[in-house]
Design brief:
2 domains; rod-shaped; DUF6788; three-stranded antiparallel beta sheet
């Protein structure tokens, strides 16, 4: 075990190094525990924020969207023989794909 004082990481600000140099070993251990918990908390918050952003991007995706229809699909109305129907519709390369959803309610 070396008796030389450890070198601080280059990323640690000088004022933090100077402050830590004045602390007792017990206080340094308390700081270490707090810093670990704080780092875990901030990482968790960042993950939750990322999940919220992903949810915001997928918000509006219908819960009834079939598994074989991509999330980018939109609902369109097609009229066939004077009847109106909802279809899921999306672009697949150069083609436009559609999948039947349901008849349009006459009250709409």
């Amino acid at each position: 075990m070396s008796y030389a004082s450890p070198s601080p990481p280059e990323t640690l600000p000088d004022d933090a190094v100077e402050t830590l140099d004045t602390y007792s070993p017990d206080l340094l251990r308390d700081v270490t525990q707090y810093a670990e918990k704080l780092a875990e908390h901030r990482e968790r918050e960042a993950r939750l924020e990322e999940q919220d952003e992903q949810n915001d991007r997928t918000q509006g995706r219908s819960e009834e969207l079939p598994d074989d229809v991509p999330s980018k699909a939109t609902i369109t109305i097609k009229e066939i023989n004077d009847n109106r129907y909802y279809y899921w519709q999306w672009r697949d390369g150069e083609k436009i794909r559609s999948k039947y959803k349901s008849p349009v309610n006459r009250d709409e």
